[in-house]
Every structure is written in C-alpha cells, then in structure tokens.
Amino acid sequence: MTTRSEELAANLRSVQDEIASFHPKLIVVTKTYPISDVEILKDLGVTDFGENRSDEGLKKSEQVTGNWHYQGEIQSKKIKEILSWATCIHSLDNLTHAEKIARTAGENAVKQDLFLQLSLDGNPERGGLVESELFTLAEKVADLSAINLLGIMSVPPVDLEPAAAFAVTSQVHQRFIKLFPGSPYLSAGMSGDYLIALEHGATHIRVGSKILGARRYD
Ligand SMILES: *Cc1c(COP(=O)(O)O)cnc(C)c1O
Question: What CA–CA distance (Å, rounded) separates 138 from 6?
C-alpha cells in the first residue's frame, strides 16, 4: 500500500522533473486539501503554497510556515486579512484594491509582492483586466511605494486552447516588460497546462491537482 506521503512525493517528483530545465517557481496549490497534506509537502521541501480563500489560507499559514500565495478573487473587506498571511497576491485587478493594499502594507511597514491579473477575454466573472486596462493600472501601481509589482498573472479562458492563450499572454508579457522592466515575472500555468505556459515564458506556475490528486469540492 502506498501512503499519502509516498503518493505526494512521487507526484511532486514527476512535476519537478518535468519543469526542472525551466527553473520556475513552483507554487503548490493546496486549496481544499487538508493541513496534513501541506505538512507532508513542507517535509518534502515545498516552500510555496497557494490558496484561493483567505480564511483557509490564514488557517493553514498559521500551522505551516512558508511563502503563502493568494490567487483568489479579492474583496475589499478581506484585504487586511489577506495581507496578514499572504506573502504574494496574484489576482489584483483594480485600483481601489491596489490603494487599500498599499495603505495596509504601509501601516504594517512592509512592501507587498503582487501580480496584476490579465484577462484575455474581458470576462468579469473570471477576474483580470484586458491589456490596455492592465497597463493603465500598472502605471498607477508602480507609484505606490508599499507595493512591489512582480509582473502579470494569467488564467486562460476556458474556451481557448492553452497554446493559443499562452501565445497571446506571452505577447502581452513582452510588451509589459518593455514598459515595466522592474516587474519581469509571469505567473501562468496550472495542472493541465504548465509545460505550455513555461514554453511561453512563465516564471511562476501554480499547480494543485497534478500533485495532490482530484479535488473533491471546489
Ligand atoms: C485552483 C487554481 C490553480 C491550481 O489548479 P490545478 O488545476 O489544481 O493545478 C491555479 N491557479 C488558480 C488561479 C486556481 O484557482
């Protein structure tokens, strides 16, 4: 019988082997999985964990130290809480939230790492901004001294082939880093498409089910 620890070790190893030549930052997305899995991953050497809900991230981060990433939808009233545990935010897409994050980080005397979320189709339900809006927001965020803008994050629309989606993402990314050379990173790629994302310049990948197994609820 395989233990959970052996299972996670094997899954993690196979992902690590596949991505090794790209040298990305691997964020293991632990949303919906129990804290016991996070503890196993930490023992296996994982340093970066991702969550979509602030209450869940807060609780887990109190039990397992590491770099905790928030990639869920941002609600204004949750910003203080998110900043209390999230090392890095991947899903910023509006100026009001940016200003509140900067204010809160300033009060805490820290600089908050974050990505601005790109939307390829402008669907507001999935979050993110289309390129022109994203660049406008980036200019404003660049002026907020308590924010450290790392780059852009992208989740492909469901109806687009990953290769096509990441090709477009890559073009936007190239234009972005010309304007914002201090924010060169690209957070893109999940379990089903991280190799394609890496081939298109992803520097941070967010992988859950490929390592942890199918989620029972979402
Ligand atoms: C859930 C989620 C992931 C991880 O998804 P998997 O398919 O389980 O790898 C990555 N990024 C975001 C924004 C997510 O919501």
Answer: 43
